[in-house]
Amino acid sequence: MKEYFEGIGKIAYEGPDSTNTLAFKYYDANKVVAGKPMKDHMRFAMSYWHTMTGGGNDPFGLPTMERSYNELEGMELSKARVDAAFEIMTKLGIEFFCFHDLDIAPEGDSLQEKLDNLDVIVELIEAKMKDTGIKCLWGTTNGFSNPRFMHGASTSPNADSFAFAAAQVKKAIEITHRLGGENYVFWGGREGYETLLNTDVALENDNFARFLHMAKDYANKIGFTGQFLIEPKPKEPTKHQYDFDTMTVLGFLRKYDLQDVIKMNIEANHATLAGHTFQHELLMSRINGVLGSIDANQGDMLLGWDTDQFPTNIYDATMCMYEVLKNDGIAPGGLNFDAKLRRGSFKPDDIFIGYIAGMDTFARGLEIAAKLLEDRVLEDFVQNRYRSYNEGVGKDIVDGKADFESLAAYALKHDHIEMESGRQEMLEDIVNRYIHRA
Ligand code: XLS
Ligand code: NI
Ligand code: NI
User: Which one of 25, 66, 107, 323 is separated from 194 by 20 to 30 angstroms, measured CA to CA?
Assistant: First the structure.
């Protein structure tokens, strides 16, 4: 079989002293951390779109990515990409992948052709999965690139667009089911608005909920038991996306009785676009019992859009793994590298370098987070900080035994309140110490 990335072998773990760009320095798949192998904490996934179809084009420039299958077109290109994708994942030791329908097969001239194209490619993917043991983390659809979705898909003012999107999602759920996918993702795409002047927000929200209920009903009907996930994002491509952030989505799910059916896929760069930290979004999902999966990437604070960079920020990775550990793991979700190379990183081996950088960063983050938790550094501090709720008036508040009258009577007698320092700088310094030494 043709090798697409010649000269690159299986990426090995060489340890922190290695200077080999094409080796792991921290990601040691089978090393046991906090009770299980690194790879099982991570469940790393390759994003098919960025890695296989992303060309490096931007609004100002043409594609740049140098790939040996670039001269192919249509179905031949899609077939070559299947082989290349599994070669990349095998060499990197990545055990999962995520895909949109449009990433794996060309659109075709009609809906029927699109569906037929998908069947051909899915068969190839299925065979590759059998050969390599690589699994599908999640599937989704692209309901935002084609002009038919210019005003949205399930929130389009045009019911024909809604119907087309339904046909697409129906097929994508079938494919994900066939490939044993463990989750199915809804990222809004253009499910939002550009201006309120032309938008019936109430109807669009109702329709969005109708769409999700139909998707779940269909999944139940065909026996797909994978976890449904919504991926919050506040803007881009639309000015305002309905799935703004975790708490907005939770409000939506509760209003439409979908709270038991859908969890969150949290993306780092979407969190920061919403004006939150990555950890904030992970934590809000975790404490509400809806942390489903993670799109691991990072943005650039100086740029206001979803730059989808490979994650190399050790602080963010540490706090992400801290939340994952506190969540008791991320399965059936995983860490999907929804990340792409910079336009100037166009060489084939840049793919491997990007993934290695991301995997090493999260491996290190896992080790630091595990140590922080083992030593209960933050845990004990936080517990102690809230100790006034363990007894007396605090306990009455928590137990629902207090009311405004009892509290006012209590406050009259205790109106000289002794405060304690929040010790933020001390804690930041301690976390730094763990980052340097754990
Ligand atoms: C776009 C999203 C997208 C989803 C899958 O910003 O991150 O890539 O993850 O549709
Ligand atoms: Ni994403
Ligand atoms: Ni994104």
Answer: 107
Task: Using the mean position of ligand 1's atoms as its centre, give its distance from the Cα of residue 213 in Å.
Answer: 21
Q: Which atom of ligand 1 is nearest to the CA of 236?
A: 6
State the amino acid at position 300 in one-letter form.
D
Q: Would residue 100 show up in a list of annotated catalytic residues for this protein?
A: yes
Element (H, E) at 326: helix 314-326
> What one-character DSSP code corresponds to residue 309?
B
CA pair distance 155, 147, nearest whole angstrom: 14
Nearest to 146 by CA among 100, 177, 99: 100
Percent over 90 (pLDDT), the chain: 99
Q: Say how far apart CA 280 and CA 372 lie, in whole Å.
A: 18
Tokens at residue 75, please?
A: 């179905």
- With a CB cutoff of 8 Å and minimum separation 6, the contacts of 358 are 296, 310, 311, 312, 337, 339
What mean pLDDT is reported for the chain?
A: 98
CA 23 to chain centre: 25
Amino acid at 350: D
